[in-house]
């Protein structure tokens, strides 16, 4: 458990919050630019002079009035937006730099070969950072962070500026790492897809304060206030390994979804799908002759106001799960959609992340 109860003044900006971060989980710290996400992370790391209050990890006081533990003695590792690798050293030398001595490493959880394999770095070991893509460099930075044997990993927008393929690989790598080592991770991000794929808990910040905290599912409503509009997070499990035309069958409760085989983490037990409400369309009967791959039976639970006056968010139940569709009021009237009615909700496989 990481207990934080802090205050910090930086010019006109004031960070003031108290929260207990769960151990063994991924907590995403989410909020608009300038709300204080990085400042919070830096405060936890001991990188903000003038911090007031307390920061405690398990039973250790890291920061209190009478005691401040230095960053390098907190057993944490930080990965930033920039990988900060030694440009003149090879990947291997970068990784070995700062690693515990061999005799100490023997007893450590995160072994050199395991980390190289987990992050698929074997082909790059003798290259210099300039000979790597941005995503590969960031994987080296994550590996180096892990090899310092942290008890807590702090990630500050580590996937910013990377393309979708590089991001997907890093997200899959981080998931594997977290599951393998039960390593607590604090991830600063303002990308909803990263939060949805990685977070167990979500802390939402506004203007230096906590706006809300909770599990990912509890926070979907708050995440829906994001610029890109309302969303749903569906939990799906692998189907019976059926494949057709490059699509793989997944189960959403009792119903089947067909998703592209590429971009999905291999051997995944279950997966979260981010579905933007704007990508969901509704029909009163099953859609035939359509290019849409996925349609599910759903029951209308209710309606919510949307940002745009001409639209509504339709809340749907798909089995036990919640799906949101952004639909014009004109369509709601034309189709006579009412709470309790059953509909077919269709969305493109390409709209699934
Ligand atoms: N030394 C400083 N003096 C004055 N204001 C500062 C100083 N350092 C940070 N700030 C302010 O603190 C606020 C929080 O910054 P921070 O980088 O933590 O935000 P953030 O949520 O991580 O933003 P982003 O997502 O853009 O990285 C910002 O409004 C910033 O301008």
UniProtKB/TrEMBL annotation:
Keyword Nucleotide-binding among UniProt keywords: yes
- Annotated TM spans: none
Under InterPro entries, the record lists: AAA+_ATPase (IPR003593), ABC_transporter-like_ATP-bd (IPR003439), ABC_transporter-like_CS (IPR017871), Mo/tungstate-bd_C_term_dom (IPR008995), ModC_ABC_ATP-bd (IPR011868), Molybdenum_import_ModC (IPR050334), Mop_domain (IPR004606), P-loop_NTPase (IPR027417)
What are the GO MF terms of this UniProt record? ABC-type transporter activity; ATP binding; ATP hydrolysis activity; molybdate ion transmembrane transporter activity
UniProt KW keywords: ATP-binding, Cell inner membrane, Cell membrane, Membrane, Molybdenum, Nucleotide-binding, Translocase, Transport
Q: Which GO terms describe its cellular component?
A: membrane
Q: Where is the ABC transporter domain?
A: 1-232
Which part of the chain is the Mop domain?
Answer: 289-353
Q: Which domain of life is it from?
A: Bacteria
Q: Name one Pfam family in it.
A: TOBE
Record's PANTHER family? ABC TRANSPORTER I FAMILY MEMBER 10 (PTHR43514)
- Please identify the protein, giving its name as recorded: Molybdenum ABC transporter ATP-binding protein
Species of the source = Idiomarina seosinensis
Give the gene symbol: modC
